[in-house]
Amino acid sequence: xxxxxxxxxxxxxxxxxxxxxxxxxxxxxxxxxxxxxxxxxxxxxxxxxxxxxxxxxxxxxxxxxxxxxxxxxxxxxxxxxxxxxxxxxxxxxxxxxxxxxxxxxxxxxxxxxxxxxxxxxxxxxxxxxxxxxxxxxxxxxxxxxxxxxxxxxxxxxxxxxxxxxxxxxxxxxxxxxxxxxxxxxxxxxxxxxxxxxxxxxxxxxxxxxxxxxxxxxxxxxxxxxxxxxxxxxxxxxxxxxxxxxxxxxxxxxxxxxxxxxxxxxxxxxxxxxxxxxxxxxxxxxxxxxxxxxxxxxxxxxxxxxxxxxxxxxxxxxxxxxxxxxxxxxxxxxxxxxxxxxxxxxxxxxxxxxxxxxxxxxxxxxxxxxxxxxxxxxxxxxxxxxxxxxxxxxxxxxxxxxxxxxxxxxxxxxxxxxxxxxxxxxxxxxxxxxxxxxxxxxxxxxxxxxxxxxxxxxxxxxxxxxxxxxxxxxxxxxxxxxxxxxxxxxxxxxxxxxxxxxxxxxxxxxxxxxxxxxxx
Length: 519
Fold this sequence. Notes:
This protein has 519 residues and is mainly α. Helices cover 67% and strands 5% of the residues. The chain contains 22 helices and four strands. The protein has helices at 10-17, 22-39, 41-55, 60-63, 69-118, 122-126, 130-172, 174-181, 183-221, 223-228, 232-258, 260-284, 290-304, 310-332, 397-404, 427-432, 448-452, 461-470, 474-479, 484-491, 497-510, 513-516; strands spanning 353-360, 374-381, 412-417, 420-421. Helix 5 (69-118) runs parallel beside helix 14 and helix 8 packs antiparallel against helix 12. The protein is elongated, with a radius of gyration of 34 Å.
C-alpha cells in the first residue's frame, strides 16, 4: 500500500493508493473520452445533412470530392453507421473497464483496511464501536465503489464535452462563442462553492452512519438482555432517535443539493437563448452557414445541458470523498504496541510467570484524576500452579490477563515469562504460548470443527475430538438430529426464533460432519 499523506485531498489519497492500477485508469479514461467524442458526432452529422440539402453541390462534402448529392447522403449515412458502432463499442469498453477497476480497488481497499484493523491495539477497539468500524469497512468502501463504477466516467465525459464543444464554438463562430461559453465559468465557480458547502455535511452524515450502525450492532448482540428485561420498546425508541438524526442530516444536504440544478438551468438557458437569437441573425445575414448554425444550436444543448447533472455528480463525488477520508484515516491509524525481537519457542516454554511491581492505568484515563487500576502488584506463579484472582467488578482481574497477553503494556513494573520481559518477546510467540478461555464465548462463522481447531488449524482429527470431549461437547455434537432442512421445509414460519437458532446451531455443527464424525 502506498504511503498515505493525511494532509492531501481525499481524491489525491485515493489516486496514490490506486497507483498499481494506473494503466487501467488511463485506459478507462481513454475509452470514456473516445466514447464522448463519438457521442458528440451526431449534431455535426445533422449539420452536414442540412448542409447537403441546402447547399447541394457546394456543400462541405462536395468540397471533399463527393459531388453528387445522393452520393453525399449515402456517404453521410455510412459515416453515421460507423460512428454509432464505434460509440457502442467504446461504451461497452469503458463500462467494463471502470466497473472492473471499481471491483478490484474496492476489494483491495476492504482487505487492506481489514488486515490493518487486525493489527491495531485492543485499546483501539475498546474506544470505538464495532458498528462504526463496520460502517467504514462496508458502507464507506461501497460508496467508493459506486463512485468509481459510474461517477468518475461521468466527470471525465463532462470535462471532455466542455473542452471539445467549447473549442468547436471558438473555431466555427468566434463572434458568438462567448455567449455560449459565458455561463460555464459561473457554473464551475458555483459548483466549487456548492462542493465546499456540502463537504462538512456529508462528513457528518458518514459519522452518523457509524453511530447508527454501532447502536444496531450493539442491540442485536445484546438481544437476550433486551428481551430478559422487556426493554424492546425502549431500544426501538433509542434507534428511532439515532435514525431521525441521520435523516435530519441527510435532509440538510438534500435541501442544498436539490436547489443546485434549478439554479444552474436558469444560467444555462441564457446561453442557449443567446446562440439561437444571435446565431440565427448571423445566418439570415449570410454570415453563417445554415448547417453550421444547426450544429451550433445542437452543440449548445450538448454543451450546457449536461451541466445540469453536475449537481448530482458533485453530490456523488462529495459522498465518495467523505468516505475516502474515513477509510484512509482508518488506514493511517497506527498500533502503539510494538513486537519485541526475542523469540519464545513453544517447545521451550516452562510457564513461570512473575509480576514485579506492576502498575497500570488505561491510556484514556488521566492518572492524575483517578486511582490506578493496578498498583505495585508483585506475584510469582510457578509452572503447574493454579491461581484464582477474586475481587469486585473493576478491581483489575481481566486487566491482569490483558497485560499478560500484551493487549496493553504496563505503565509501571515488569511482567516476565520464564525470566523474559513480555515486552521483549516476539508478540505472536508470546500469545501462542498462552491459552485464553474468555468469559465471553464467541463462535466464528463455520463448522464446529473449524471453531474447535481455530487456534491450531493444523490439528488432527483425533486432537479435535479429544478437545471436544474435554470441553464436554462431544455428546452434544454427535447427538443433535440432522434433519435441519427437512424440519425447516415442513414447519417454515411456524418455528420460533429459539427453535430456528437451535436448528441453525445443529446445521453449523453437522456441516461437513462426515469429515468430523463419520456415520
